[in-house]
Amino acid sequence: MRASLGGRHVSGxxxxxxxxxLEETVAELLRRPSxxxxxxxxxxxxxxxxxxxxxxPVFSYHLKTVTAGRRxxxxxxxxxxxxxxxxxxGLRLLAxxxxxxxxxxxxxxxxxxxxxxxxxxxSARGVRTVRVDWRDRERVREQLKExxxxxxxxxxxxxxxxxxxxGVVAELCWSDDPDYTxxxxxxxRVGYVRIAPLKEEGDPRGGRIYFIRGDLLPQLVECxxxxxxxxxxxxx
Length: 236
Ligand code: AMP
Hints:
Elements: E1 2-5, E2 8-12, H1 22-31, E3 38-40, E4 49-54, E5 58-62, H2 66-79, H3 84-96, E6 108-112, E7 132-134, H4 137-146, H5 151-166, E8 170-174, E9 183-187, E10 191-196, E11 207-212, H6 217-226, E12 228-233
Parallel strand pairs: 4-12, 5-10, 6-11, 7-12
Antiparallel strand pairs: 1-2, 1-3, 8-9, 8-11, 9-10
Helix pairs in contact: 2-3
């Protein structure tokens, strides 16, 4: 589902469900944006679904300042196998706004861990991770709620888990929502590491950087955009 108001994107969501739950799911998605004047809901049959036993494990850290938060994110990227100068470039791109003119992208930047070059075809759109969901979304939502986390983490954790499965070496993210300053680094080696704050309150810039191996580019994009993945449970 994607919804807009006055030509501006306001909400988007993705679900992977049994056919028997189609109607309730579409109804839920229609209720999701608080305000919109246009909404597009696309329904597609998916034939093959890969199931993944567990999500990445979740860790949360609170730092005193954005500078300290970004320094910590840098350490986690390096621990994930990203060379330091390329990790710094990723942080700089998100801080400046990765789309042309310093704007926000619709998807993610693909950054080579070998050359530090951007590999996405369209630097305004980027690459979007789609077709991923939880087997039992309600249960995981409750589990995360008990740990003090919201729907936002539910979706971001599913996305990050799929990214690792597809071969992304590490991911760096903070939201473009000016009121949401927590971001994360995610990888096979360090898990899903939430870091607060990664940007200043009121800053409208944000995005996602996927650090990847250049030789895996075609398979990786195919996996992110096409492969359907269901995550069985939250790793606790
Ligand atoms: P959000 O976490 O929804 O605030 O999104 C933050 C940024 O991540 C957006 O500005 C996009 O650049 C990027 N993004 C959002 N959704 C996706 C997705 N499904 N796949 C890849 N990148 C995304």
